[in-house]
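Q: Here's a chain of 370 amino acids. Please give me its 3D structure as tokens.
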Amino acid sequence: MTASSSDEELSESGRLENFPHPRRVAQLTGHDAAMAEFAAALRTGRMHHAWLLSGPQGIGKATLAFRMARAILKYGAGSGVADDLAMSPDDPVFRKITALSHPDFLLLRRPVDKSGRLQGVLPVEEIRKAASFFALSAGEGGWRVCVIDSADDMNISAANALLKILEEPPRNAMILLISHAPGRLLPTIRSRCRKLALRPLGVKALAEVVGAHFPDLSPDDFRLVARLSDGAPGRALALAHEDGLRIYREMTELLLSLPAVSAPVLHGFAERLARPAAEQNYETMTRLLTSWLARMIRDAAAGGIFEDWVAGEAALMRRLMGAATLEQWAVVWENTVNLLRRADSVNLGRKQVILSIFSSLAQTAGGSRG
């Protein structure tokens, strides 16, 4: 697929860089049960007014939400829609939603500031657009649909504004909420939605998605992508495209040297990731590192059966767990996550963040909590 180069495409949330936005995607692999559940509800004519689509980031929630929106706007409730909600990209409804020009469709997401960067939250002013939108009559005489991508981005004022809409839902109106962490939403919002949880893809379905974009990926690289992505196709594509496998292997080499990490090698690694053009690689590395620590802790708690995803990892994890307790490594993981969150909120230097994380890892691997 070829990505659009427009400024609007490049800045919007929910889109994997160098791949089309989910609203442009006609195929959805591996979520047949979720599509069939919505299709069955659509055919009964008794549609719930709000659906909460949950699952890990990159699992396909946004692609499914747009697929659901197209189906209800094209066919309406009580129709004979197919289980897979399929629609040709040439269909007028598909084209209008892709262009965000359908009169009965509204997409709410974090707005872009004057510099072209996404704002940190989805503010109440955006959610209020939904109230005004639903107050109007459907432009094409049927349903009105609002997609919120993602509900996790709402601040408390926005969440309360959404709750008011959910408490008194308009007739023939549907809200599709996308959430990577539904447990963080207000319980009153969750209780007013029908839940649709997406599950990780199996190896065969994941291979179909990744193979369509990266047919030359070696079997070893695909196995590593599949493991690192946890069955989320968006993550798998990002890893394959963003040089994620090289980053993971470099990161693992540094971990293998703990506690005596080479200062020149570490500084070189951190400097490359701190460059202005390397922001995506930095985010990839930090996500992979926190996941690696979580995997080590989880496997240790389950009995210490570690696996080699790359050569030497299992022995490294056994060595690290022998140098400090499970509780100490859990503290390291928690501190790392908190540091990364703080770094995002106050714009800490990326190089210093990486050096601080590896300093903590080295201290703990050497038998000191630091």
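Q: Can you summarize the key feature?
A: Residues 242-365 form one domain.
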